[in-house]
């Protein structure tokens, strides 16, 4: 089932996107993975490990990171360079879920998660690494 009218943004592991949590090639996502272009996305409304397709891309992405909790209708796509992230910009798009890890996922009532671009919320989905006091490539 497609999810429509989502905002698609982009980020990389640079200081502008991730602030003090930018530590180069060994930066970790909130789920503990090393981000990879063409695979990693940040999303707050799907659990870690959920595989999705994004209209306009041929590959499958995996939810491995989080955004600030205020972003409820956004998917942030990881790119290997800031230039690529800026070039992608901001778009409206459609995503298709390929698998959902847990339909009972409720990030407000389970364990602790740290989000990409700052902030914390709750989940049992991994210990994560706090990310971002930076501005990122999308306006806030």
Instruction: Report helical residue fraction.
Output: under 10%
* Whole-number tally of structural domains: 1
Overall morphology: globular
The description of the largest β-sheet is:
6 strands, mixed, barrel
Per CATH, which architecture?
Answer: Beta Barrel
Going across the biggest sheet, name each strand in turn: 1-5-2-4-3-6
Secondary-structure element order, N to C: EHEEEEHEEE
How many E-type strands?
8
Sequence stretches where pLDDT stays below 50 over 5 or more residues: 103-140
What integer is the average pLDDT? Answer: 76
**CATH class, anyone?**
Mainly Beta
Ends distance: 29 Å
CATH superfamily: RlpA-like domain
Share of β-strand residues: 25-35%
Which radius of gyration do the C-alpha atoms yield? 13 Å
Q: How many H/I helical runs?
A: 2
Kindly name the structural category.
Answer: mainly beta
The CATH topology label is: Barwin-like endoglucanases
């Amino acid at each position: 089932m497609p999810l429509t009218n989502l905002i698609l943004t982009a980020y990389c592991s640079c200081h502008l996107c991730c602030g003090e949590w930018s530590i180069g090639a060994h930066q970790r996502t909130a789920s503990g993975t090393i981000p990879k272009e063409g695979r990693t996305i940040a999303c707050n409304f799907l659990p870690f490990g959920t595989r999705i397709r994004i209209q306009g891309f041929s590959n499958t992405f995996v939810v491995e990171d989080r955004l600030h909790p205020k972003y409820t209708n956004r998917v942030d796509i990881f790119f290997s360079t800031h230039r690529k992230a800026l070039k992608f910009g901001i778009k409206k798009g459609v995503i298709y879920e390929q698998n959902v890890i847990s339909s009972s996922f409720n990030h407000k009532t389970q364990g602790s998660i740290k989000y990409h671009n700052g902030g914390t919320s709750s989940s049992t989905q991994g210990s994560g690494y706090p990310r971002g006091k930076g501005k990122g490539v999308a306006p806030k």
